[in-house]
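Posting this for the archive.
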Amino acid sequence: MREAKLDELPQWLRDLYALWVARKGARDFPMRGDFVVEDFMPWIGRLHLVEVLPGGDFRFIIYGASTNVAMRREYSGLKLSQIAEPVARLWETGYRDAVARRRPLFLHHPLALYAERDAKTEMWRAILPMAENGEITHLLVGFQVIAEDGRYL
């Protein structure tokens, strides 16, 4: 897993980041209430909404349906601490980094790191913090799996 630059991301993740920037305005972070469902319609199945819990855990409020298909699992409503698969540790690392650094984080890695997939299948994530009163409360996560032939999964 490596940190990626914005211009490396698939276009729709760059568009999601642009929406995040527009909603935050002059503030460091947007609030969850700054968004409406219609904002996300182009990407709705590829998004996760993650709650930042006291004590350092995270909960998937929404786990995007397209990601369910790509990952072959459903995690909505679960805390990361409840997920035994190694994938949860990778997600946790990215989420903790975004919260600790107090900024968006863009990540790239081969999906084979934690799923039974060909090593040439890759994953991109944009982790975008949201805050209330300066405290990061949620993470908006865009997730894209790309097959070896370039198809979005």
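The longest helix spans residues 87-101. The first strand starts at residue 2 and ends at 3.
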